[in-house]
Amino acid sequence: MRKKTIRDLDDAQVRGKRALVRVDFNVPLDDQGRITDDTRIRASLPTIELLLERDCRPVILSHLGRPKGKPEAKYSLQPVARRLQELAGCNVMFVESTDSDEAYKASHNLKSGDLLLLENTRFLGGEEKNDQRLSRALAELGDFFVNDAFGSAHRAHSSTVGVAEFLRPAVAGLLMEKELEYLDSALANPKRPFVAILGGAKISGKIDVIEQLLPKVDALLIGGAMACTFYRAMGLETGKSLVEEDRIEMAKSLLDRAGAKLTLPHDAMVAPSLEQAKQARAVKRDAIPKDQAMFDVGPQTIQSYSRAIAAAKTVVWNGPMGVFETPPFDAGTNGIAKAMADATAKGATTIVGGGDSAAAVSEAGLDSKMSHVSTGGGASLEFLEGKQLPGVEILDEAR
Ligand code: ADP
Ligand code: MG
User: Fold this and answer.
1) Residue 225 and residue 264 share a domain
2) How confident is the model at residue 9 (pLDDT cuts 50, 70, 90)?
3) Which of 114, 142, 176 lies at the terminal end of a domain, its last residue?
4) Which one of 56, 109, 157, 321 is least enclosed by Cβ atoms within 10 Å?
């Protein structure tokens, strides 16, 4: 079922009204409190701009970091307010007390063309408890609700779910709409061949994704340390590689059920330790030395995975192929990113989900070459697991 978006609201519903907008401005900050990456702010600009164009007055809510329900200076949204002002090119008012009369008055006094940003929702004790009193108070800050925080949609908090119980219409912003469109059409209605690539450190965090994707995909390509748990299930030596011993049995059963759909790396980049990355060399998967660990997929694997990606019409990728933080073990991850960028140019739909995968693609400078890079790490993973996202469920349905 498609959710209503800000585009579905008619003029009478929006003109002059206060739009309470939940965004995900959870940006990374350095130890000086400077924003190191403003992608998440940029990602919600189209929503804010459309609201301004439609003569609404946006009152913006976001969380930042993990303060424990009380103010903590290092998690203040103040630096975000300044960056937002630069990026949006309009005045940004800032109020420090989100759950207060001051915020309520500021929302009513907000001038057309200006923005109001309220302080970190996680400074409020009730936020993560989805507290009803807080939800009601937040609902007073707008005349309708817009959720553009896809990255927080898997959490039932006051500012993502509770508030929408008391404030209607409750609609999706443009970023939320785009995220849902891409992920939904990939899973529900993929152009074939449909290839999924899964990597990352742990198989335990990805089991539900594997189970959900297996019946839908034409091929499932495995990388990351996860591959080593599968190797062990096949009886191969994995040396000092990261293996989840308690998941080997489960890996066996997955291999049996998946048959030819599931592909493991043919070769591996190994080294005695990450500190000795200079000694990295490629070995066949059945020749991983006892005293070494697999830190990336090998060159043959990159080649054959790239061929599979080139032949695909839909590609979904979650989880780096290796320890991409430590070169040369970024080669597998970069190879996949490059193959996906090429496939996009030839008309395939390519989707990257997962925080570390998105960071790797952005580091490689290839984010604009993908059809879609999800801004929500945990949320996109839960979506791929087939779970309902509470922040999406609560929104009005389009008719
Ligand atoms: P995402 O955030 O994209 O969902 P994950 O969090 O599941 O990805 O996994 C990312 C982590 O997996 C990275 O920190 C990376 O270093 C690690 N990783 C990938 N391959 C290996 C490997 N062979 N050995 C150890 N760690 C690995
Ligand atoms: Mg991660």
Assistant:
1) yes
2) very high
3) 176
4) 109
Check 54, 202, 261, 338 and give the catalytic one. 202
User: How far is the C-alpha of 50 from the C-alpha of 180, rounded, in Å?
Assistant: 19
Q: Which residue's CA lies nearest to atom 22 of ligand 1?
A: 225
**255/362 same-domain check:** yes
Residue-level pLDDT at 1: 76
- DSSP string spanning 307-329? HHHHT-SEEEEES-SS-TTSTTT
pLDDT at 399: 81
Quote the CA–CA distance of 315 and 348 in Å, as a whole number: 7
Rounded to 10 deg, the angle between the 45-53 and 174-188 helix axes is 120
Structural domain including 344 reads 190-384
The average confidence (pLDDT) of the chain is 96
Phi, psi of 27, rounded to the nearest 5 degrees: -85, 155
Nearest atom (ligand 1) to Cα of 227: 23
Residue pair 302/336 in contact (Cβ under 8 Å)? The answer is yes
Q: Which of 356, 361, 382 to mutate to test the pocket of ligand 1 (most atoms within 8 A of CB)?
A: 356
The pocket around ligand 1, CB under 6 angstroms, is made up of 199-201, 205, 224-225, 242, 294-295, 318-320, 322-323, 325, 354-357, 377
pLDDT category at 202 given cuts 50, 70, 90 is confident
CATH number of residue 158's parent domain: 3.40.50.1260
Q: What is the pLDDT of residue 205?
A: 87
Please give the distance, rounded to the nearest whole angstrom, from the Cα atom of residue 224 to the centre of ligand 1.
6
> Is residue 275 very low, low, confident or very high in pLDDT (cuts 50, 70, 90)?
very high
Percent of the chain past pLDDT 70, that is, above it, reads 100
